[in-house]
Automatic annotation (TrEMBL), chains A, B:
Entry protein name: methylmalonyl-CoA epimerase
Gene Ontology MF terms in the entry: metal ion binding; methylmalonyl-CoA epimerase activity
Domain of life of the source: Bacteria
Transmembrane segments: none
Xref: PANTHER family: METHYLMALONYL-COA EPIMERASE, METHYLMALONYL-COA EPIMERASE, MITOCHONDRIAL
Length: 134, 134
């Protein structure tokens, strides 16, 4: 069921600083910032050859990462995203196993324009897990 | 300089439970547990096609992940490991940029038998970063 690791998301207080660190100091390929007001974040992607790191900075009021950054003012790893072929089948299998799906349990359109779901960290080794249908 | 994402490490209080979750519920390929007494952890790898998740459980007294699990009793993402071609050149470039290398700054032999270094989370977006020479 579980496919590739699509990305690791790191929430940061200063996206420009994180992008400069990865581009200039670590020598990585870093995308231009992309504002996603409907998700309450601005994102930058670091291309690592086999997968991506996604930096997230809060955008606007009530950003979903504001509370995380209040607890982790330097930033930190926020979630991990796995690819699945069929997100509804994956959800139903996980729910049958007792796992909790966040929100209303229906897939939403994620930052990459594809259906995504988030799973409860308490059911996944203390880690917020995103599933993305590819 | 920065190569592939080698693995994302997740510290867990119960390795068998994490392995069963990923193998049975998520349908992933999970390795047998491997005790690494010299690193104070037992590890299990989840093969994701393009990269790996490494689960870490404390082993013995004074495990380097004991404090992390005391703060995160359900577990959580512990570090991210990037591949580099030349770890000494990478270290010197990072130090010249003001980044702090943990320990005595010399590469150690990591869990995969290759030279590794850890970088200070305060200098890397609140995230513990491991570099592994491949």
């Amino acid at each position: 069921m579980l496919g590739r690791l699509n990305h690791v998301a790191i929430a940061v207080p200063d996206l420009a600083k994180a992008a400069a660190l990865y581009r200039d100091t670590l020598g990585a390929r870093v995308s231009a910032p992309q504002a996603l007001p409907e998700h309450g974040v601005t994102v930058v992607f670091v291309e690592l050859g086999n997968t991506k790191v996604e930096f997230l900075e809060p955008l606007g009021e009530g950003s979903p990462i504001a509370a995380f950054l209040a607890r982790n003012p330097d930033g930190g790893m926020h979630h991990i995203c796995y690819e699945v072929d069929d997100i509804v089948a994956a959800r139903d299998r996980l729910k049958a196993g007792g796992a909790r799906v966040l929100g209303d349990g229906e897939p939403k359109t994620g930052a990459h324009g594809k259906p995504v779901l988030f799973l409860h960290p308490k059911d996944f080794t203390g880690t917020l897990v995103e599933l993305e249908q590819v």
